[in-house]
């Protein structure tokens, strides 16, 4: 495209040949290379990609807010008659907030904690001297009301920490829209939120876009969100746009092998509940090295020899559609590509060697009965001075659960549901007030650490943050043999153990001498699995095992976990909020809400026919990666109440669309249905 | 807030009692009989006995301690051994000089150190940042009594710009201020370095926070982002440092007051220790401790005022 091409009408912002380098100690990282795509007026444009794809870098480049070590190597960003890449700082500042505004990824850290919303919003309006303070406040209150904050006139004088996560994100949207910008950028706007909140925010963005006739750019790794929200989609991989098109073209007729692979790997799309998930082998390429041929070739399921040598052509399909692949045009064109949607193009990774039949009737490995965990909220003196009667909150309330050998139990809940507390309590890291925790029939609740320590060999934990839970100063070899040292196990050859474990989690040997910061998310996860497996445990408690992993990699970890389970008859208790993932790996599910299990049963049954309205809301709350299956309305409103004011009746009554008088008055008891499913609901769904 | 203040004040009383206890034990470990020291070597045994009775020196130590605590609670810190004047009155006469010195010392250090740290953090690795870095280390490393002596030699003796000793004529504010300049400079200098370093470090951290990026993405002016947003958060740990710094400064006034012959608490304590004038030592140390506790409490309340999260957790 010639540089001086006239902007096509209907294009609000045009990105042309944008290239950005990052200067790092490892050398120049070519983070963006020749990125070009238009942003059309009054549309929602999604930029989708995995970590390292450069999708956020594009967004920050538009605003001129790239990190200090970034260097724009070329290109232009046409916005009206201006080129934002080469605008002065003053011009850019006049654009930011007024014409282009942003909704940030994490509302917990992106709003200043020491200023009220009123103050923050008045600051944004500083370029309007003609408005009095009272008028600015009125505008802010109106906007807060519009994004669905109840009682905005009062809440505007509150600070961010007074707001829950979902409310903060609503306030963040209100701040971004306050000036009536032409373009709204949203950087992973729901990633930090719970499922039920995510659905609400998606719909809010959609409604506001229609109402305000705004143009929105959404950056996300979540295919479901993109499918549900966007009109146009740009797919990025390793710093390049590899495909772009309207949402239906992308989701129903993807042209590029990577787009196809990405769609096939999304667990939300897979209806076959087999235990194996498809994976894209390999890792994202090292962008410090010069590139030859197609950037995706090393991982591509259809790579040809030419792909490694020649840069593929940009094949246009009309409109903004485009895909960059040898298969689509030129001498290597394949008329049979892409295959129909139901044909899988990527494999399932390595297959497990043997798969023992599930033995029923085993004695349970872990048995939790009527467990209660309370947290102290205030000290005695303060309680007396403030007249507080109740000095505890119930983090875990009457929970019963069991895990058998070779079984996977998914513990699902939103933040604040007590699922992590329950996991920690099982591992004797949090004292419980009443109830029992039995491991292989032995009562272990509140056991003194000296007696519990030998049991820790049999119960291992996989932590949520794969890199953060590894000491940055230890090599992988030292990390995966650390359990032997902790338990004072001598007489084993640590080096050969390290190699055995690395083999088991399919971590190549050279990685043993690396340090955590040199590992990718998936590799760090493997180290975590190896650590957990070091002492041949019987039970593994995995806290969000796929958190922070890309779709193409999470399958590898889950498949690995399934293989290891089959080989060693491990019991898994998987703590997660990710329903699509847990659906593929769990035999049974327990759904927690505000510290109580509201429903428990076999995974397929729970998904097919949820009994508790909350379960139904969760199952329906996952956005589907299919633009034809968009939801018209949100099935559940409101937010998880605070533990401090637990409702008197059913904990879910305040948000339940079916709530009746009885629900508000009385807590529903746990009921076991004839098919073995348990639930806590007065009026279970048909 | 009420709960918080109750707790803090309760703790303060405990701390003060412990300090008095410590002073008591120290004094009783020092050889020599207080009465003999007070009345001189030629006092008759009757005079000593009378004095001991008046001062409750014949009582057991724990009773002396309780009597002292009781009196101190009503503002009576005993009598000066030599002049028989109430210790409270003597301390009240002197304390103003020390407070003025500490306030002036910390004041100019804050006025210079905080903006320096801020500017250094906004442009890391600029020449201003480097100069600030070198100066901070330099000023922290030089002890304040050396600064006092050099300042005295250069500005008072050689250049004769400022008066060397004393606190100035009573009632003459200009003269008193002129006498304040050199000692305040001396005790404040190292604090310029401390504060600049502290503010720079916390500003650098805060400037990397997401909410600063938000403020910039909304197009706020750099000045507003730096002073209205970043500094507002970055100042919090510095307030604690300043609060604790006052305590350190009260002790560095001892040197400054001796060198510049200012009649403050520091000099009072020094003279009293040399003369074994125990009631003065005890009273002055007690007052200094109380002041320190008050300043720290005040700095904590100031943080609560700046940070709503802290305010609500009180």
UniProtKB/TrEMBL annotation, chain A:
It is found in: Cell inner membrane. This is Peptide/nickel transport system ATP-binding protein. It comes from Ruegeria marina. Keywords: ATP-binding, Cell membrane, Membrane, Nucleotide-binding, Transport. The keyword Lipid biosynthesis does not apply. It comes from the Bacteria. GO terms for biological process: peptide transport; transmembrane transport. It is a peripheral membrane protein. One of its GO terms (cellular component) is plasma membrane. Pfam families: ABC_tran, oligo_HPY.
Automatic annotation (TrEMBL), chain B:
It is found in: Cell membrane. GO terms for molecular function: dipeptide transmembrane transporter activity. Its main location: membrane. Gene3D superfamilies: MetI-like. The keyword Transport applies. Keywords: Cell membrane, Membrane, Transmembrane, Transmembrane helix, Transport. GO terms for cellular component: plasma membrane. InterPro entries: BPD_transp_1_N (IPR045621), MetI-like (IPR000515), MetI-like_sf (IPR035906), RhesusRHD (IPR002229). It is a multi-pass membrane protein. The chain crosses the membrane at residues 9-30, 95-122, 134-157, 177-196, 229-260, 280-306. The keyword Transport applies. Belongs to the binding-protein-dependent transport system permease family. This is Peptide/nickel transport system permease protein. The lineage of its organism: Bacteria, Pseudomonadati, Pseudomonadota, Alphaproteobacteria, Rhodobacterales.
